[in-house]
Design brief:
Length: 122
């Protein structure tokens, strides 16, 4: 309510009250807007957190899949290398056995004579 002075024009007190009410109304509007902004910021922050969590889960899943795949490749390479090494060792053993058999066949009579000589020489 605006107070009028004697001439019917709002007085100094009335204008000050009116200005104070305007300031208070503006401050109230600013506070309402600030509250809405804060609510929007909080909502956006939650949305970003959800997105980051989803991205993290997707990254973890990709990383786990890639790690599993690489481990499988490494295992296969080791298995292939092991198989090749076993085959190589088997071939070497067979060659050694063939040489030993050949040597035994060639020296069989000689070795039998040596054994008999040792037994009789006792």
């Amino acid at each position: 309510m605006i107070k009028l002075n004697q001439t019917g024009v709002p007085g100094e007190k009335g204008r000050r009250n009116s200005q104070m009410e305007n300031v208070i109304n503006k401050l109230s509007e600013i506070e309402t807007i600030a509250s809405k902004i804060m609510e929007a910021v909080i909502a956006r922050k939650k949305e970003i957190a959800r997105q980051k969590e989803a991205e993290k889960k997707a990254f973890d899943a990709r990383l786990e899949e890639e790690t599993g795949r690489k481990l499988a490749e490494i295992r296969q390479k080791l298995e292939d290398g092991k198989s090749a090494e076993i085959m190589k060792l088997q071939e070497n053993v067979e060659k050694v056995m063939e040489r030993m058999e050949t040597d035994f066949d060639a020296r069989q009579d000689e070795m039998a004579d040596e054994i008999c000589a040792k037994i009789l020489g006792m």
